[in-house]
Amino acid sequence: MKTLQRFSFRPSVAFFTGIMPFTLVNLVVTLTVSWPIFRAGNSDLDAWSQVVAFVPFVSHYFMLSLLLGLAVWGLSCFAGRKAVTPAAVILSGLFHALIIIDTRIYTIFHFHINSLVWNIVVTEGASDSIMLGKGTLATFLGIMAAITAVVWAAIRYTVGNSSLLHDENRFRGTLKASKIIFAAGIALLAADKGMYAWADLHNNTDITKNAKLYPLYQPLTVKRLASKVFGMNVNREDGVSVQKGGGMLNYPKQPLRFDNAVKPLPNIVVIVIDGLRFDMLDKEIMPNAVALGGEGIVFENHFSGGNGTRFGIFSLFYGIQGTYWHNFLGARRSPALMDTLIDKGYAFKILSSTKLTFPEFRKTVFARVPDSIEDEVSPEDASVRDRIITNKFVEFISPQQMKQPFFSFIFYDSTHLPIRYPPAFEKFRPTAETKELNFFRDIGPEQMPVHRNRYMNAARYEDSLIGEVVAALKKNGMFDNTVILVTGDHGDEFFENGYFGHTSSFDDYQVRTPFVLHLPGEAPAVVSRMTSHLDFVPTIMEALGCISPPGDYSQGISLLRDNNRRFVSISNWDNAAVAGPDVRIVFSTETYNMSTFEFRRGSDYKLLDNTPEMMSSYRAELVDQAKRMSEFYR
After folding, report:
1. pLDDT of residue 219
2. d(Cα 469, Cα 409) in Å, to the nearest integer?
3. How many helices (H) and strands (E) does the chain have?
4. Is the pLDDT confidence value at 123 over 60?
5. What ranges in 476-580 are assigned the alpha helix state H?
């Protein structure tokens, strides 16, 4: 018996005889509590697919339960057996409370606990907008009491159970069973991550959606390895299954209705310049864009839907905020605008100076028109590629070829690092050479004037190409019946507020872009009210004769309608902002970063005091933001 007791105090043995049974009990409880998430994300699958989907469901919550067990194990190694039992009960209670709350939030709103949710709840006056009720609290406390009783009994039987030391057969049986359970759990984790990597390579959306389905889920991708080591074509589109309904998404909310008497259908040309920020719309820098604005509508106070390319382009083409990006990518869901154009018989030409595989626009925005995409036009630098795609557009709209309305997307890249342009366009000097940019030596406030000059020269070059596009449309008699948009996917910053490039802040330089729109039949105008990339889709859908309410397919407002909008939504990978004229309410969209919740000025991005009064004054906007993050889910 003494040998058995000494053996039992080894950390590895204590782990298997105490912590693994404790982990298993927590796993069973967690799977039971989280079952509504599994059901919400997989209800549309057939029986076999649901069996496959059960693997990541179990493995993910096994991992979370194991981490909880490891925390208790750490306590057992340093604090002794007596301190472990109460600590384990408390940690397990907190863990399951969060799981219960997160599961309920997800099944209602389809996003997990994040800093926005937390701050809405803890803000004084939250009860004015969120009526939890006594029944909700009683139900929650009842569930927690039942879970605590089960876990406490399990802890008494496992972590706090010394009777195992007096029964060698039971001790060794527990040790063996726990090792089998641990091995099975690790095998499930490996299978889960392997399945995700395979699904990501083969565009299997039934599995890739798990990245946003489960809280704190960590996906495994091997595209770089598959491409470089095994020579696989990891960006192919032949396996993409485009959804037009079903799944978790409720987009559009209703079948769209059209007035088919609208004739003629306008041509549509969308010109996006990578990183084009708002102050580039100047006659010294972009005279052709300014001239186009003189024949169209210039929106002076315009915001992208993101401070990065993915979220800017997503918001422009879907008309909804970028927090939906991950789920739309997982579902390979085409935008309602593109679906409408396809249904109406448009011809397409998608021209990009940079590959549309990263960001993954071949699997989202242009998923249904892969044969119309040209995004590998030359191995030369961006300035050469921009010239080539301009020539290809001019060729595309030749009268001999164009017998139907057309849509064209032109994505210019010369303004993106490394900034390139032909020598003839170097007007602003001095400039920096960016071919061999040293980020330790060449990036800092002192070097910014020469980088900004290069950027302006590149914008001037892109403007010359815009002039050629407009001239070709006019020459072919198409200008009067063509919607032409010139904008940026986001802005770019040169240390004006201490940042370089984009995706790092939501200040004016990174999120405000030019927005010049030529719309057939509309008189020239300059609009100073706040507008957003989200507004483009309802504007164009109306021009196509859509009579459905914009709210059925978009969160934007037609650019032709006056509005009293106070805020717009801007998104990034794991952060978002509610942006007013000169305030940015920045919050995390992920559970793991609950501390991110800030009030900042838009102009200089200085932190403002996060006071209860400040929170209370913007509570209505924050609650509205939370609702918007869930309205296009089932």
Report:
1. 83
2. 12
3. 21, 15
4. no
5. 508-511, 536-543
Q: Which of 285, 300, 367 is nearest to 328 (CA)?
A: 367
Give this prediction's pTM. Answer: 0.78
The phi-psi region of residue 526 (left if phi > 0; otherwise alpha if psi is between -120 and 50; otherwise beta) is: beta
CATH number 3.40.720.10 given to 286-560: yes
Instruction: Match 């210039």 to its residue by tokens.
Output: 298
C-alpha–C-alpha distance, residues 562 and 565, integer Å: 9
Q: How far apart are the first and last CA of the chain?
A: 59
Tokens (6 digits) for 409:
């997307």
CA 530 to chain centre: 23
pLDDT (0 to 100) of residue 45? 74
Above 70 in pLDDT, residue 230? Answer: no
Position 122 scores a pLDDT of 55
Residue 552 neighbours by CB distance under 10 Å: 18
Which amino acid appears at position 427 of this protein? Answer: K
Residues 6+ apart with CB under 8 A from 336: 251, 252, 256, 318, 319, 537, 541, 553, 554
3-state secondary structure of 48: helix
The residue extents of the domains of the chain are 2-213, 286-560
DSSP 8-class letter at 19: I
If you average pLDDT over every residue of the chain, what do you get?
85
Phi, psi of 219 (to 5 degrees): -75, 155
Q: Which amino acid is at 524?
A: P
Question: Out of 97-111, 333-347, 509-523, which region has the weakest mean confidence (pLDDT)?
Answer: 97-111
- If one counts every other C-beta atom within 10 angstroms of the C-beta of residue 83, the result is 12
464 has pLDDT over 90: yes
Is residue 271's pLDDT more than 90?
yes
